[in-house]
Design brief:
about 240 residues; seven-stranded parallel beta sheet; 8 helices; globular
């Protein structure tokens, strides 16, 4: 019998990879706390899809880069009912060569992608520790593993997430909280619409871009598998791009 109290907090889930993760976890029996910044229409569409699967979905709109806003949106909620799963998927790009990169391009990416992880996880972690159970999955990127020209800010933020998750894994493993990272490669989302596929595909051994569902399936495994001994690891989902 499905445990109707299972909750997954999916941060950045109104579109793309986050949407696919939310839907896959809903299929696995989780009610979803879906966070997003401002695309109310997209968030509402995902909510309706989740409800069609027979699961509940709460929409929570806030800016993860703002600590006080994040705390106000989540603190009381997690005290009342700590989620079993946290998936941190929020992320933006502001690509530019470092020599031309503006302070705003640097700071906005770091504050959303990396500071946002602190803001959210800091708020959720204590209730998880009290419950002595949980799964945390951080969505990094192949750019955080091997680096990408024109993405010094993005690569720095995604590499920072890997370091943060590994350190957190050492802190909370004894409390039955498993922390892992997935590092997607080129996934067919709004963020990759403009890439020159004819130049990229020869670099990918499986000769195709990834789909959001490819990422969601791995995240779902990390969040639901009972026989789990994977902790503090980075799992590449890139078709072999980072071999």
């Amino acid at each position: 019998m499905v445990d109707v109290t299972k909750i997954a907090l999916v941060v950045g889930a109104s579109r793309g990879i986050g949407r696919a993760i939310a839907l896959r976890l809903a299929q696995s029996g989780f009610d979803i706390w879906l966070t997003y910044k401002g695309n109310h229409t997209a968030a509402q569409e995902v909510k309706l899809e989740i409800e069609k699967l027979g699961r509940g979905c709460d929409l929570i709109a806030f800016d993860v880069s703002n600590y006080e806003e994040t705390k106000a949106a989540l603190e009381k909620r997690v005290e009342d009912s700590a989620p079993q799963v946290l998936v941190y998927n929020a992320g933006i790009t502001r690509d530019n060569l470092l020599v031309w990169m503006t302070k705003e391009e640097w700071s906005s990416v770091i504050s959303t992608n990396l500071d946002g992880f602190y803001n959210v996880t800091r708020t959720v972690l204590l209730p998880m520790l009290k419950a002595k159970r949980g799964r945390i999955v951080v969505v990094s990127s192949v750019s955080g593993v091997i680096g990408q020209a024109g993405q010094v800010n993005y690569s720095a933020s995604k590499a920072g997430l890997i370091g943060a998750a590994k350190a957190l894994a050492r802190e909370v493993g004894k409390k039955n909280i498993l922390v892992n990272v997935v590092a997607p490669g080129l996934i067919e989302t709004d963020m990759t619409e403009g890439i020159p596929k004819e130049k990229i595909l020869p670099l990918i051994p499986v000769n195709r871009l990834g789909r959001p569902e490819d990422v969601a399936s791995v995240v779902n495994f990390l969040c639901t598998e009972e026989n789990m001994y994977i902790h503090g690891q980075v799992i590449g989902i890139d078709g072999g791009l980072a071999i």
